[in-house]
């Protein structure tokens, strides 16, 4: 058993005695632990990715699981429409309004995924963005599945709510939800009341809020019953954003983050965090987990990293309070209910950055905003990721660099704040960095009402 624990510490994932910056964010409960124990009796079929190992992977895989660390990935994605939808980008590259870049770390297969979808589902002046950070044996597959499926589910719920708009158009009740954190909807700028113009947008905003909640519930249910992806001990974070006109609605599940680059009253560039990192030791998150018999505590060698554990076993040690998948913990306080926030753009807002924790673990919000502002729009995401990789090597020289993914969405004041007619504007094709295709293909939470909807 001691040998099994040593294997866990070397290859596995945020579980027993794992140092900061090791392989992934979660290891699977007792079943996944048994897989490793069995592997030891078979001469260890764990291959160290990137070290020339050629032994087969520990867990069963299908041809799409691609456990080779991204070295021989086929030119295909996990969706049949990856190359057919104008304005939909999931590879390293840029467009006129967005820059995106992802780089594999030193932990094995890249488990980060990202998406920018301009003219989202043919909706005028609407953009969807998201980053997804997988963890566990099949985290890379879960992240790509959520990347490909969640936007479609969100759009379907959005369209459905539009058809039932009369049921959501009572401004007296809408305003209460708009201001209430108890109902899972936060104003980022914390105004005491919405302006008249914001009230005019209330229906759209509340519709998106309800659509996010419902789409996340459906997405998690689909993962639970997915025939080809074992999500018992694998999952993913997701921070996703819908921009329609001047409205930004952000849905956050996990510990990825969205940060706004804007100007203050002195015209200095500042960072405004739009989401809350949903860690297990946040008071509301910890309270919910403990009420459901889950446990929250940190390991001695990483006292600053709180984790979620099963009631009677020191597994799996998940370092976030919300995630898609990870069904070994769903009865013990882990949820996939998004924390939803809203921000109305002003002329001082320049861009928003969505990124996985590989970025935020080593760079502050202010550093991220400064890096993006100092780069060209087309190279901003790459500059940010490369800066994070260098910071990992400097700050944690004995730790494995985490996967890093970033999406930078830029706001055009001429386009966003002037009454220009964009009905006939064509969405430009994405500019893809061909050199990266092979590597990339292949304390505030939602309140009780929203949580009950998830169950």
Automatic annotation (TrEMBL):
Listed GO biological process terms: regulation of intracellular signal transduction
Transmembrane segments: none
EC category name: hydrolase
Molecular functions (GO terms): metal ion binding; protein serine/threonine phosphatase activity
EC number: 3.1.3.16
Region (Disordered): 165-198
Any Pfam family the entry gives: PP2C
Reactions the enzyme catalyzes: O-phospho-L-seryl-[protein] + H2O = L-seryl-[protein] + phosphate; O-phospho-L-threonyl-[protein] + H2O = L-threonyl-[protein] + phosphate
Cofactor: Mn(2+); Mg(2+)
Annotated PPM-type phosphatase domain residues: 97-411
Polar residues: compositionally biased ranges: 170-180
Name of the featured protein: protein-serine/threonine phosphatase
Source species taxonomy: Eukaryota, Viridiplantae, Streptophyta, Embryophyta, Tracheophyta
Gene that this sequence comes from: LOC100810538
């Amino acid at each position: 058993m001691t040998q099994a624990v040593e294997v866990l510490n070397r290859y596995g994932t945020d579980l027993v005695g794992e140092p900061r910056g090791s392989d992934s964010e979660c290891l699977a409960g007792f079943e996944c632990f048994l897989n490793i124990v069995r592997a030891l009796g078979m001469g260890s079929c764990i291959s160290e990715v990137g070290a020339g190992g050629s032994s087969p992977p520990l867990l069963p895989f299908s041809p799409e699981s691609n456990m080779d660390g991204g070295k021989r990935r086929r030119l295909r994605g996990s969706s049949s429409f990856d190359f057919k939808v104008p304005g939909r980008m999931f590879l390293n590259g840029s467009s006129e309004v967005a820059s995106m870049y992802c780089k594999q770390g030193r932990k094995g297969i890249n488990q980060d995924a990202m998406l920018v979808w301009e003219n989202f589902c043919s909706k005028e002046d609407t953009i969807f963005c998201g980053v997804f950070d997988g963890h566990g044996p099949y985290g890379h597959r879960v992240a790509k599945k959520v990347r490909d499926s969640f936007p479609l589910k969100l759009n379907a719920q959005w369209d459905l709510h539009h058809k039932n708009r009369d049921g959501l158009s009572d401004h007296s009740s809408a305003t209460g939800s708009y201001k209430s954190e108890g109902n899972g909807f936060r104003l980022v700028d914390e105004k005491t009341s919405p302006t008249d113009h914001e009230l005019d947008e209330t229906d759209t905003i509340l519709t998106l809020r309800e659509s996010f909640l419902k789409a996340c519930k459906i997405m998690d249910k689909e993962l639970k019953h997915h025939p080809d992806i074992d999500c018992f001990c694998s999952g993913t974070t997701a921070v996703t954003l819908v921009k329609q006109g001047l409205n930004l609605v952000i849905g956050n599940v996990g510990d990825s983050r969205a940060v706004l680059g804007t100007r203050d009253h002195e015209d200095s560039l500042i960072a405004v965090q739009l989401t809350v990192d949903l860690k297990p030791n946040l008071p509301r998150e910890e309270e919910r987990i403990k009420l459901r018999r889950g446990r929250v505590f940190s390991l001695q060698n990483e006292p600053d990293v709180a984790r979620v554990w099963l009631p009677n076993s020191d597994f799996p040690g998940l370092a976030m309070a919300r995630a898609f998948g990870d069904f070994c913990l769903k009865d013990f306080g882990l949820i996939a209910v998004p924390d939803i926030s809203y921000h109305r753009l002003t002329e001082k807002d320049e861009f928003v950055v969505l990124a996985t924790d590989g970025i935020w673990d080593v760079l502050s919000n202010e550093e991220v905003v400064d890096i993006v502002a100092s780069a060209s729009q087309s190279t901003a995401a790459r500059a940010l990721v490369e800066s994070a990789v260098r910071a990992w090597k400097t700050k944690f020289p004995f730790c494995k660099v985490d996967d890093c993914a970033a999406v930078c969405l830029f706001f055009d004041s001429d386009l966003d704040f002037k009454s220009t007619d964009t009905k006939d504007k064509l969405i430009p094709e994405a500019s893809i960095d061909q050199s990266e295709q092979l590597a990339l293909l292949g304390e505030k939470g939602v309140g009780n009402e929203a949580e009950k909807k998830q169950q």
